[in-house]
Amino acid sequence: MIQSLAIFSNIMKCFLLAIVGLALLCNTSCLVTTRPKTVEVTTDILENDTEKIENKEKKKDFTEKLNKDIYLEDVVFALQNQDWSKQEEACLNQTLTLIRNLRNFTLWAVWDWDSIASEPQGLLFGNRYQLGNFDECLNPPWVPSRPELKTQYCLADIVLERTDNAVKKRYIMGVDPDQSVLDYLEVNLPHSRPLNELTWGVCVPASCGPGSVERLMRTMLARSHLGIAGIRPRISTGDCQKQREERPYDTAFWAFITLLAVLIITSLVCTYLNSGRFKCEPTTLKDDIIQAFCLRENANNLLKMHKDGIEVFYGIRFLGLCGIVVVHQLGILNAGAVSNGKQVDQSMPGPGGWITLHDDLFVDTFFLLSGFLTATAFSQMKRFPNPLFAILKRYIRLVPALGIVVFFVSAVYPYTGSGPMWPKLVEAETGTCRKNWWLNLLMLNNYIDSEHICLVVSWYIPCDFHFSCVAILLYWLYTRQPKLGLVCAGAITVASILLPGVLTYKYNWSPIQLFTFEFVSNPRGSPDFHLMYIKSHHRAASYIVGFFSGFIFTKNKRENAMRISRKWAVLGSLSGVVIMLAVLISGTTFLWRAYHPIEGAVYAAINRPLWTVGVAMLVLCCSLGHVPLIKAGLSWYVWVPLSRLSYGVYLTHTLIYMRSVFVARNSQHYDYGDIFTAAAGVIFWGCIAAFVIWLIAEAPANRLFDICVKRMLMKHPRERKAEEKSATPQTSTNSTPGSSSGHLQDNLPTTVQFSSKV
Q1: Mind spelling out the 3-state secondary structure of 697-726?
Q2: What is the pTM of this model?
Q3: Number of Cβ within a 10 Å radius of residue 717
Q4: Are the beta carbons of 380 and 561 closer than 8 angstroms?
């Protein structure tokens, strides 16, 4: 039995070993034979994945096409179910034809539709202007051969109004991501742009009128992401621009070109005639006129430096102008098409806003300089001239450049650019100048019809002229009746300080004109601009501070009564700068704190005089003492010709930059680095324009006036002797205005030697 079990156990072991060996053999065989099949399976998987991807893309394309078809069908349905008048049927039919060809992917239809911004983008970030592609709309290549496909570009102003009658929520600092967009659009701070307003450009058939364009835009807006329940668009469309529509050259254009050609030719001829005799004194009226128009003589006058102790004025004048150019560019760009407007508004309460919102103080610096120089000129006269001649001379100094620029804006400026926003600029600038150019020449544009003032920055010129007239008359009265003159001068000084505060308190005006978005976008429409900002009686205090500072300087300069030590000069200069910064920064706080009438009245009365007191302290400390680096930097000779061109740059700089902003085809990014770079270019081209105006208009006009006065005095010997006596500088150890002047070579070191070739 035991032997039988042992045999059975051996048989089972052999059987199990045979099964295991067979299993191993089968596994190896399967691995060998199934390897090619594994490759085939992988290939099948890849092919299946490719098919899935292709199917997904086809499904996506189909979905997009379906969505487009649904969108276009929806647009067609909405357009067809509106009440169109008979005059609008042509527009409706051409629009439906465009959509039908758009489905077929026809080139002309896709071309027109491609030039339209299909829906607003970036509106919540302050990107108001949705301009599309202006040039694509107006310049298709088939226009000459297919007039029936002619299109036009239209800009529509849209205001999004909510209709759910919700209670307006109080603004809370910060943004809640879970809040309603309707509440976000309603937030409108005093210094920020409204987010519920946009300007949309569309390309439509040429037969469409303003009403038809509004229908189309309302339909498109309703199918955008902003077309939700609770928003009702209020749309207004202005004039549209058509293809190959050029502005014809009118009489005013050719008149300006003729005047410019006559002035240039006259200057060139006189320069040639005067080239061989520039060292000779003119003897006849003809010689005087030739010399007045000589380009060489007029250019040399730019290089004269008056060494009278206030050389710092050269640097202050030009650098102050550079500050005005920069802040004006900030405002002009902010009023144009900006892609990050919300970001700009959020930076206003910070350091950027401290400088840009109350930057109108920079202009008061020029009033101080004008008053200062007027006082120094008066103090050097032994006999005061006829006040009418003095007033007329000041008028001749200001008008030629102003007249040239106003004439250019009225006649030529509309032809210098094009673009989606260009017609608005032309209407605002050229239209007002053609209407009110005579007010500028009469120095009344800051009082009469100031809502349509020609050249917004020109308000400064009548103010300066009015101040000069009052100063001349008061000083003439002082020379005749000293006590009466002093009483009148004191009364005017007190009134110039108190009047802005009293009027601000009485009418509850804003104490200052802040350069917020509302103001820079439409300065002519600002009530504060007309009632307070540009009126001469509101800006007189700065001129008076400069006038008294000039007398303080000349008295101490003549008598050598007070020389400021270096320590006190430095402390005084720093104190002046601190006062200026305090006035500049404190004004912006009126944006975000409660307004108190008495506080506002006090600030309106003293902020401009305090600013000019700070500037006067800096000038007097540098002139009567020594302030290291500052005095040398502001007295640098390079500022001499540039400061004399400042007036022309002031008149032209806004025109140069407004053109670059309003010819833009797309929204620009508001970046301070780009603005400073652009400002350098504006200052450069402004200097070129000012130099040309100086050579052919300003300098000749002033010299011709002097010739007329000289000829008149020659007919009256008594007046001539008195005039020569009054014009003779006083004998003093100190240099007086105009007594020590020279050209470029007079201001170079004496060690420099010029070769015969030079």
Answers
A1: HHHHHHHHHHHHHHHHHHCCHHHHHHHHHH
A2: 0.83
A3: 9
A4: no
